[in-house]
């Protein structure tokens, strides 16, 4: 696993084309990244009830699992509460 930010990951991300990973890194939101590699991500996908056919998969520490999410969907949830992601405190 690799990632950015400090502290415990708020988001775990499996396989990404940059549309989720890049903004998370820019905003400094703590995340863990797992490549599209069955050995590296299988346990996360199984726990989330996903099979890896819809990527990326975004897993939130306190919430839903999003498979192949539209950008606005994950952005609304990336803050640990209401408000813009940059203002989030977890």
Describe the structure.
With 90 residues, this protein is α+β, with helices and mostly antiparallel strands. It has one domain (2-87): Glutaredoxin (3-Layer(aba) Sandwich). 28% of the residues lie in helices and 20% in strands. It is built from 3 helices and 5 strands, in the order ββαβαββα. A 5-stranded mixed β-sheet has the order 1-3-2-4-5, with helices on both faces. The longest helix is centred in the middle third of the chain and has 11 residues, at 38-48. The chain is globular and about 30 Å long.
Portion of residues in beta strands equals 15-25%
Approximate helicity band:
25-40%
Backbone shape: globular
The N- to C-terminal Cα distance equals 21 Å
Average pLDDT, all residues: 77
CATH class: Alpha Beta
* Gyration radius from CA atoms, angstroms: 12 Å
| Biggest sheet strand line-up | 1-3-2-4-5
Query: Could you give the order of the helices and strands?
Result: EEHEHEEH
User: What count of domains describes the coordinates?
Assistant: 1
* CATH topology assignment: Glutaredoxin
* Major β-sheet annotation: 5 strands, mixed
Q: Structural class given helices, strands, pairing? A: alpha+beta
Number of helices: 3
**Low-pLDDT residue intervals, each spanning 5 or more residues:** 80-90
CATH architecture: 3-Layer(aba) Sandwich
Tell me the total number of β-strands.
Answer: 5
Which key features would you list for this structure?
3 helices; alpha+beta; 5-stranded mixed beta sheet; 90 residues
Please write out the topology.
Blueprint: E1 2-4, E2 11-14, H1 21-27, E3 31-34, H2 38-48, E4 57-60, E5 65-67, H3 71-77
Parallel strand pairs: 2-3
Antiparallel strand pairs: 1-3, 2-4, 4-5
């Amino acid at each position: 696993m690799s990632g950015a930010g400090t502290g415990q990951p708020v988001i775990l991300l499996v396989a990404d084309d940059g549309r989720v990973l890049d903004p998370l890194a820019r905003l400094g939101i703590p995340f863990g990244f797992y490549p599209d590699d069955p050995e590296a991500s299988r346990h996360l996908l199984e726990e989330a009830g996903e099979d890896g056919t819809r990527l990326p998969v975004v897993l939130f520490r306190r919430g839903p699992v999003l498979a192949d999410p539209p950008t606005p969907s994950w952005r609304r949830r990336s803050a640990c509460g209401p408000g813009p992601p940059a203002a989030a405190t977890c």
